[in-house]
Amino acid sequence: MTRCCLVVTTHERPQALERVLGAVAVQSRPPDELIVADDGSGPATAQVLERHAARAGYPVHHEWQAHEGFRAGRVRNAAV
Q1: Beta partners for 34?
Q2: Is 21 exposed, middle or buried (0-12, 13-18, 19+ CB in 10 A)?
């Protein structure tokens, strides 16, 4: 079977991230690994990720960078 790694980009929208992660959790084929590329979010985002990781059946990684303007591309590249 082909392996699948899902990369999700976020910045200071923990409620939206929680909805995305909720949708990932109910997929018929979950990813083999999830990486959240975070462009400088605060503690609320980290808490969402911790809750998701605790119940996920796959590794969950948080690639975080300090927010210094719009650098979503940079954090996505770092996540990959």
Answers
A1: 6, 60
A2: buried
Helix (H, G, I), strand (E, B), or coil: what is residue 61?
strand
Q: pLDDT tens digits for 22-70?
A: 999 999 999 999 999 999 999 999 999 999 999 999 999 999 999 888 8
- Is residue 1 predicted with pLDDT exceeding 80? no
Task: Name the residue type at position 3.
Answer: R
Whole-number Å distance between alpha carbons of 62 and 26? 20
Contact 12, 45 (CB under 8 A): yes
Which residue is associated with the tokens 């084929």?
29
